[in-house]
Amino acid sequence: MRILGLALGVMFWAAQGAWAVEIDIEDHRRYEGTGERVLRIISTTDLNVFDPYVTAFQRRHPEFGIDYTVVSSSELHRAIRAGAEFDLAMSSAMDLQFQLANDGFSRPYRSAATEALPDWARWRDLIFAFTTEPAVVVINSIRFEGLGLPATRQELIAVLRDNPDRFSGAVGTYDIRESGLGYLFATQEDRSSDAYWRLNEVMGRLQPRLYCCSSQMIDDVAQGRLAVAYNVLGSYADERLAEDQSGRMQILRMEDFSNVMLRTVILPATAQRIEAAGAMIDMLTGFGLRDQPGDWPLPALSHSGPQETSGFGPIRLGPGLMAYLDPLNRRAFLSEWENAMEQP
Amino acid sequence: MIETRSIGKRLTLLLAGVAALLSVLSWGMVTGLAREGAQRTQDNVLAASATTIAETLRSEQGEVRLELPYAAFAMLGAISEDRVFYRVTAGEDTLTGYDDLPAASPGRPGQVVFDIAEYRGVAIRMASIARLVLAGEGPVLVTVTVGQTRDGAGAIAGELSWLAAILAVAFFLVAVALSALVARTSLRPLNEIAAAMSRRGPSDLRPLLRPAPADLAPLLSALNRLMDRLRQSIRRSEDFIAEAAHRVRTPLATVRAQAEIALRTAKDDTEKERLRRIIRAVDESSRSAGQLLDHATVAYRTEDLAHDPLDLADLAARTVAAMEPTASMRDILLKLDAEPARIAGDAILIENAMRNVLDNAIKYSPEDTTVSLRISSAGDEARLTVRDQGPGLGDEPFEALTERFRRGQNTDSIVGSGLGLTIAADVLRAHGGRLELTGDRNGSGGACVSLVLPLA
């Protein structure tokens, strides 16, 4: 269980690298295989979420060991850009992943499995999506007692605005300066919904708590430290909800608009175990196209839930994602966000 | 004859060559146009993107400010999955973007300039637009460059080129098939003339009167002139033979008459024998001359055959009457068993044929035998059968016996020219009939010659 602001702070040197890249890692595990060869994966997906996939992969290819490193999406982006040696890079920050592919830090891969992906789930044989995950609002139902549950941003704004005492210090959202995924959700919402900035204004007045990661926000909601967590990864929330015994946690899907993120995987240009990495991509995209939800922690591409009815598809995997990554745009966006969030 | 390549094949090859050339040309042109079109599409999008970004340029507190609109990037992903690079420079400084992106050739402010460069190991297409922004002391030239890899344009052009190649090949194949057809069609008149020529009988030298394309008219008239000359030449030689035969026959008759008188007055047996031999030789010469004359007559008359209504029985009776003296000299009985049979033809020719057949029969019959003639009709044919009791026709093929100057193998002791059956066969063929030889091979039954003619 990780706590806000506490990174493991372990300095990790990419093994066997011609040049070592310092990476601020959050979690790491090595799964031994029967052979010498090791598939090195750098990922933003939490270990406990990805563990079943590793198991499934090793059942198919027991000869491969798997070296799994969890980092933040911006750290992943930085590491791959710096030339850290990994065989696969998986991230929820589509924009950063896209930029890596666009800038030539990933190598093309093509197989029957990737060919089967719909057009919106891959780009140039360089980047492949294997999940569609909506952003949701998670609330603690006890803290909402006596109030109607908001179904749209307008209603959420109204609830927060009308009950400042109840929600002061109990609203959580991504610190988009730190979290790549948070920044992606924020910029996409800015593009799609005019309610976003008003919501930020309202949250800013309530001394919001800012987080790096979905799981910590969800934990805090479950334990009652937070009443509302805004823009949380739906897949993590679902998983956590299934474990939650108290029944105090509740997931709200905004009906006016909902961001749907694609979890993507790329084959970094520095990859060595191309074959094994390809097999992993095939397996993940295969799961992504499964018809039955099954017992997997991450949703399939085709099972993005009720969000499909909202009229918005997943965030488009294309050069548009690069617009917000531009330093000028980012600086402008962050300063606007800070102005809204950090009110005296 | 030295056979060079056929006109049909040559024509087909030539047309196919032209078609191949046109196919390749059209493929090349379509490919060029496709490349151009795809490039223009990409250029338009790049220009729109650069312009959209340039429109956000402004000056704030003496500094150049801009934002990169989402749409400016999103539109680049709309037509292809190409990698995108961009750079905004103010004077020498890079404001944002990929600062190692090659600088585009500068254009006038407001004008979009396109360029091709190599960046990060791939070829890219770039659109640049420059704008003057008032910042600080004076105007700063700000250049917005948007670049994109060219895979999408290449893929579209490649796809179209591939399609064009398939079409070109299809066009070529159709053209080849049509070329073969055209070649065959245009050669048809020639082939028809050749077929008409080869269908003709061996002695048919009439001019070829059939419609022919203008190109073939010289050939046709040359052919006709040749045939005309050939016919005249044959006619002249036939005339010559007839004239010669005629000239020979009259003195021969005189010689024979004189020899007969001499024979009657001769006392000496040796002398008589000698005279008889003379008479026999004269007879034979006279016969040969007669047959040559007959042959010439047949050749002449069959050219423009008469179709008079005739009764085969009459003709047979007349011929028998004419041959009676010759037959009786050797105590040969001519027996005619006739029934009326209407035919159409040239009486002189048919009599000629009969005389020759009968003459043969009498000649090859032993003394004191019978030559029987029988007329019968069966179906649409009339048949005159002449049967003798001579040695038969030997064992040569019957067809060979009707060849000119060909004589049977069992005719050593008997003089003859070998023209008899040829004349008969020619006459019958000219009338649409035929000569049938059905004699007994071993000689006991004699020869049997049938003149078959179509009934009128």
Would you give an account of this structure?
The complex is a heterodimer of chains A (344) and B (456). Chain A is of the alpha/beta class and 344 residues long. Chain A has two domains: 180 residues, Periplasmic binding protein-like II (D-Maltodextrin-Binding Protein, domain 2, 3-Layer(aba) Sandwich), CATH 3.40.190.10; 141 residues, Periplasmic binding protein-like II (D-Maltodextrin-Binding Protein, domain 2). Chain A has twelve helices and 13 strands. In chain A, strands 3, 4, 5, 6, 7, 8, 9, 10, 11, 12 and 13 form an eleven-stranded mixed sheet that branches. A two-stranded antiparallel sheet of chain A has the order 1-2. In chain A, helix 5 packs parallel to helix 8. The longest helix of chain A has 15 residues. Chain A is globular, with a radius of gyration of 20 Å. Chain B is an alpha+beta fold and 456 residues long. Chain B folds into three domains: 152 residues, Beta-Lactamase; 105 residues; 151 residues, Heat Shock Protein 90. Helices cover 53% and strands 20% of the residues of chain B. Chain B has a five-stranded antiparallel sheet. Chain B has a five-stranded mixed sheet with strand order 9-11-12-14-13, covered by helices on one side. The radius of gyration of chain B is 51 Å and the shape is rod-shaped. The interface between A and B is medium-sized, with 20 and 24 residues.
Topology, element by element:
The complex is a heterodimer of chains A (344) and B (456).
Chain A: E1 10-13, E2 22-25, E3 27-31, E4 38-43, H1 47-60, E5 65-70, H2 73-81, E6 88-91, H3 94-102, H4 112-115, E7 122-123, E8 127-140, H5 153-162, H6 164-167, E9 171-174, H7 180-192, H8 195-205, E10 209-211, H9 214-222, E11 228-233, H10 234-243, E12 249-252, E13 260-266, H11 274-288, H12 327-341
Parallel strand pairs in A: 4-5, 4-6, 9-10, 9-11
Antiparallel strand pairs in A: 1-2, 3-5, 6-13, 7-8, 8-11, 8-12, 8-13
Chain B: H1 7-54, E1 58-60, E2 63-65, H2 70-74, H3 76-79, E3 84-90, E4 93-97, E5 112-119, E6 122-135, E7 138-149, H4 151-199, H5 217-265, H6 269-303, E8 308-311, H7 312-329, E9 333-337, E10 342-345, H8 347-364, E11 370-378, E12 381-387, H9 398-401, H10 420-430, E13 434-437, E14 448-454
Parallel strand pairs in B: 9-11
Antiparallel strand pairs in B: 1-2, 3-4, 3-7, 5-6, 6-7, 8-10, 11-12, 12-14, 13-14
